[in-house]
């Protein structure tokens, strides 16, 4: 609670706003999840009901067709025809059998044909259509149903229902198989009524045979198999197997109506949530404008006085808001006037003392001038930055700030730093060069995240970047690209600096590559050109070993690349 009270006022307001939004959002999510759960339960119950009704319809139609087939098998004329050997009598029974079969076909418009086979494998049918009959039915002793078959001549699908014909004549082949009866059925034979009634339901139904081929649906979607259904993106489906028939019901729920209702409810609550959030945010905005914003203006004003010189004491603050804010503004301005008066009095009273002190300091100054070092330059740059800020010179402020950061980085701290610190300094250096070159080049960074924490020697990148700008980019008026990348390769970190612009002359490139490879014992042994690159190369080899260092290459199109190879296990504690 104490830490909470110490937070700024603006943070308190943001915190309260977030808490309010979280509460309302939590309520909305809770409601949405419960509504969705209720919908899913209703949808599951409804789907189970539809599946049950469909299964009952299929069972009923299957049972009716099986009874028709049994009626055919035990019909007297058909029994007599199959048992008779006298041709004249057999022909009489044949005509009566055809008449009865024609009457039987009229009982159900889904019966394409009725086929009778005797034991001699002779076929008797009412139509001349050539239907393929599964051979495995000959071994069945009860009603059997084939998978969905296709007749290319008639261009329609069909089922074959089989029943063995056994003699019911006690005097002739009693209870012996005397033939086979087949019903050729349409692919809608089992769900003809459902094809009309279930079109109005909110479920999508498919019927599939034992070979996973889809032969019926209450929609216009043309799927021929379960794999086609899956390939079309339908994953949320339920398969129910009808025992004994080899048929399967695939059910999907049409969720448009339920989802539309659910979405309407969600939209209503979301609208309420948005309106409440807008009201809360509006109230907080009014509070911020009249309280927090003036207070932040006041804080910035005090900070500017703290960081500025004596001239800042003449500034005045003007705050607008609630009554208390106006009182703060008035009292602060009166206090500043008193401080300004007291400051002037002190300055006038001690001016003579300052003159004496100045004379004393002149001797010290002469000594200090001979001791100029990077620390003095750093402090001087900080002073220049303050003056430029006071006189509103942002370019000078940014340049001196960046240069001061580079000086401070180079003279303080360890000689070994994480790679992320080196990148920060490079960005400061590039920002200085940008003030000079403006849009003549732009920079690309491609740093692998694992590279940022790798420890490297300090100030090895700046000379490389400086060399790329001075020798590669400065000499061309065309827009150039400076690319900096880093990645890990086995037990090494590879850093690449690539620039477009003026290429290195082939003779000079060969000489520079030779100097980097030879690693001379003394800089005097090598040419003075590109001294920064060679110094970096020598530092790396001295610190990390001869297997590491720089490599340089330049193409005729102006692309120059410097590659730095560094180990991953530099231990700063073991290096001086």
From TrEMBL:
Domain Signal transduction histidine kinase internal region, by residue range, is: 363-441
Which keywords, in A-to-Z order, does the entry hold? Kinase, Membrane, Transferase, Transmembrane, Transmembrane helix
Organism per entry: Anaerocolumna xylanovorans DSM 12503
Q: Which GO terms describe its molecular function?
A: phosphorelay sensor kinase activity
The entry's protein name is Two-component system, sensor histidine kinase YesM
Q: Where is the Histidine kinase/HSP90-like ATPase domain?
A: 458-569
The record's GO CC annotations read: membrane
Q: Which Gene3D superfamilies match?
A: 6.10.340.10, Histidine kinase-like ATPase, C-terminal domain
Residue intervals passing through the bilayer: 12-32, 269-296
């Amino acid at each position: 609670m104490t830490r909470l009270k110490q937070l700024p006022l603006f943070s308190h307001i943001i915190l309260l706003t977030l808490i309010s939004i979280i509460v309302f959002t939590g309520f909305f999510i809770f409601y949405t999840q419960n509504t969705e759960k209720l919908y899913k339960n209703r949808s599951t119950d409804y789907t189970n009901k539809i599946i049950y009704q469909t299964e009952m319809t299929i069972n009923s139609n299957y049972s009716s067709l099986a009874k028709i087939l049994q009626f055919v098998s035990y019909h007297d004329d058909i029994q007599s025809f199959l048992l008779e050997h006298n041709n004249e009598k057999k022909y009489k029974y044949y005509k009566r059998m055809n008449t009865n079969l024609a009457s039987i076909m009229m009982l159900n418009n889904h019966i394409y044909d009725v086929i009778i086979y005797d034991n001699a494998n002779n076929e008797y049918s009412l139509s001349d259509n050539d239907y393929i009959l599964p051979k495995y039915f000959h071994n069945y002793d009860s009603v059997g149903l084939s998978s969905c078959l296709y007749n290319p001549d008639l261009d329609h699908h069909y089922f074959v229902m089989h029943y063995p014909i056994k003699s019911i004549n006690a005097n002739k082949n009693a209870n012996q198989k005397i033939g086979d009866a087949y019903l050729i059925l349409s692919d809608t034979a089992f769900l003809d009524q459902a094809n009309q009634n279930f079109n109005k339901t909110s479920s999508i139904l498919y019927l599939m045979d034992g070979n996973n081929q889809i032969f019926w649906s209450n929609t216009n979607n043309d799927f021929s198999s379960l794999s086609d259904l899956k390939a079309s993106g339908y994953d949320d489906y339920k398969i129910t197997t009808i025992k004994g028939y080899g048929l399967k019901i695939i059910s999907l729920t049409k969720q448009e109506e339920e989802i539309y209702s659910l979405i309407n409810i969600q939209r209503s609550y979301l609208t309420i949530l948005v309106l409440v959030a807008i009201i809360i945010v509006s109230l907080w905005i009014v509070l911020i404008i009249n309280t927090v914003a003036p207070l932040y203006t006041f804080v910035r004003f005090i900070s500017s006085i703290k960081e500025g010189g004596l001239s800042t004491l003449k500034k005045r603050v003007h705050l607008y808001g609630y009554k208390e804010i106006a009182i703060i503004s008035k009292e602060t301005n009166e206090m500043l006037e008193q401080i300004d008066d007291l400051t002037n009095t002190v300055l006038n009273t001690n001016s003579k003392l300052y003159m004496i002190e100045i004379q004393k300091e002149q001797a010290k100054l002469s000594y200090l001038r001979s001791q100029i070092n990077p620390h003095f330059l750093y402090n001087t740059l900080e002073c220049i930055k303050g003056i430029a800020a006071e006189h509103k010179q942002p370019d000078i402020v940014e340049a001196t700030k960046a240069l001061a950061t580079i000086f401070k980085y180079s003279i303080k701290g360890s000689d070994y730093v994480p790679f992320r610190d080196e990148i920060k300094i490079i960005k400061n250096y590039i920002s200085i060069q940008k003030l000079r070159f403006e849009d003549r080049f732009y920079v690309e960074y491609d740093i692998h995240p694992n590279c940022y924490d790798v420890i490297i020697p300090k100030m090895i990148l700046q000379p490389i970047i400086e060399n790329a700008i001075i020798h590669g980019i400065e000499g061309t008026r065309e827009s150039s690209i400076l690319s900096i990348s880093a990645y890990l390769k086995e037990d090494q970190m590879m850093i690449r600096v690539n620039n477009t612009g003026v290429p290195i002359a082939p003779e000079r490139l060969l000489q520079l590559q030779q100097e980097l490879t030879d690693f001379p014992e003394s800089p005097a042994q090598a040419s003075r050109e590109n001294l920064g690159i060679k110094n970096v190369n020598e530092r790396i080899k001295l610190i990390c070993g001869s297997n590491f260092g720089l490599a340089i290459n330049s193409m005729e199109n102006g692309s120059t690349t410097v590659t730095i190879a560094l180990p991953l296990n530099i231990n700063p504690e073991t290096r001086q």
